[in-house]
Amino acid sequence: MAWLSDKLGSGPLLPEGSSAFFARRVSELTGAGLVVLTGGYLAALFSYVPTDPSLNSATDAPVLNLLGSPGATLADVMIQTFGLAAIVPALATLAWGLLWMRKIGVAQLWMRMTLMLTATVLLACAITIVEPFTSWPLAAGLGGVTGTILLERIGLVFTLLGLPQSELVILITAIALGVPGVVAFFWSLALPSSDWRALGRAVTFINHKLGALLIKAFGRLTGRVAPPTFATTNDDELDDLVVTDAGEAVVAKPKRRRASPRITADKIENPKPKTKGLVDAKPGLVKPSRQAGAQRQRSLDLGAQNNYVLPPLDILDAPNLAVPPSTPKKRWNKMP
Questions:
Q1: pLDDT tens-digit series, residues 53-69
Q2: Each residue of 63-107: pLDDT tens digit?
Q3: Are 64 and 52 in contact (CB under 8 A)?
C-alpha cells in the first residue's frame, strides 16, 4: 500500500471544512431523532389507559396504547409516579431537539437534565393540592405518587413544628414549591434570548387579538356596539344631489405647494465655489513681498524710441603694456 500513500501524500484525506459539515449533519440528525422520540413519548402519555397490561396491571385485556405494550408500560410508570407533571420531560426534550436541529446545541446538558428532573418533582408536589377531576384514572392526586408522598412529609414537618395545617398554609406551600419548579423548567429548556423575545411578541399579539375579539363579542351581546353595516348606493340617487357654491369652493381649493428656490442670472454666471477651507477654487497671483521686490533685477531703460547709442571708446583708458597680461590657468585632463 506504499503506492497509495505516495499518491495521496501527507495531506488530509477529506477537503477542508468537511469536519464542520459532518458535525452539522450529526447535530441535525440528533435533534430530529430526539424530536421523534419525544413525539412517541407524548403519544404514549395521551393514549394511556389504566387497564392496559403494565407493571402495575396484570390483565389479558388487549393493549389500547398507540405504542403497544412498551408505550403502555412507559406511560403507566410516568403517570403513576409524577401525574400530570410527566409532561415536563417531554417539553424539555422537544426544545432540545429543536435546538440541535437548528445547530444551536444545548449548553451544559447535564445541568439542564438535573433542572428538568427537579422541575418535574417540584411541579408534581405543587399540583397535588388541586382536587382531581372525575375522569382522573389514578387513586393518587394530580401529582402522582411522588407529589402525594412529598406533600404528606411536608405536612408532618409542619406538625412537628407546631404549625397548623390549614388550607392557607397548604396553598402557600404549594406556591413555594411551584415557583421554583417553573423557574427550573424554563431554565432547563436552554432557549436563547432571541427565542424568548419572539415568544413574548407572539404571546402579546395573541393577547391583543383575543382581547379585541372578546370586546367585540361582549359589545354585540349587550347591544352597546352595533355590528358594522355596509350600505349600497345607486347611481340614480347621486343624480339628485345639488352641489353648492361653498362646496365647489372647498373642492376646487388649490393645494399649497412648496415654492422652489429662485435662480438668478448672477448666480448662474458667478457660481460660488464648492470648495471650502484653505483651498481656493480659483487660484490668483501671489503678491511678492517688499524685500523680494527690491532684490528683483530691474529692466534696462532704453528710452521711449528704444534708440541706444554705444558710448565712444575714448572714454576707456589705454592699456599698460609694462605689465604682461595674466593668463588663465588651464585644466588639463589626465590621460588614462
A1: 887 777 777 888 898 88
A2: 888 988 889 899 999 999 999 999 999 999 999 999 999 988 888
A3: yes
- Is residue 118 within a helix (H) or strand (E), and if so which, with residue range? helix 109-126
Q: What distance in Å separates the CA atoms of residue 242 and residue 227, rounded to the nearest whole number?
A: 31
Helix axes 109-126 and 68-82, enclosed angle (nearest 10): 70
DSSP state at residue 273: P
- Whether residue 92 contacts residue 116, with contact meaning beta carbons closer than 8 Å, is answered with yes
DSSP-derived 3-state class of residue 106: coil
Burial tier of 116 (Cβ tally within 10 Å: 0-12, 13-18, 19+): buried
Q: Vertex 298, ends 294 and 304: CA angle to 5°?
A: 135
The cell for 210 is 383575543
**pLDDT higher than 80, residue 250:** no
- pLDDT range class, residue 336, cuts 50, 70, 90: very low
| Phi/psi at 108 (5° precision) | 55, 65
Q: What is the DSSP string of 245-262?
A: HHHHHHHTPPPP-PPPPP
Residues 33 and 50: their CA atoms lie apart, in Å, by 28
193 grid coordinates: 434570548
pLDDT score recorded for residue 159: 81
Please say whether the beta carbons of 119 and 185 come within 8 A: yes
Please report the DSSP string for 268-300 in residue order.
HHSPPPS--SS--SS--PPPPPHHHHHHSPPPP
Q: Which residue has the cell 445547530?
A: 103
Report pTM.
0.58
Q: What is the dihedral of CA 60, 63, 69, 73, to 10 degrees?
A: -90
From the list 37, 185, 24, the residue with the least C-alpha distance to 104 is 24
pLDDT at position 252 is: 58
Are 63 and 69 in contact, with CB atoms under 8 Å apart?
yes
- Cell, residue 148: 402525594
User: What span, in angstroms and rounded, lies between the C-alpha atoms of 180 and 115?
Assistant: 10
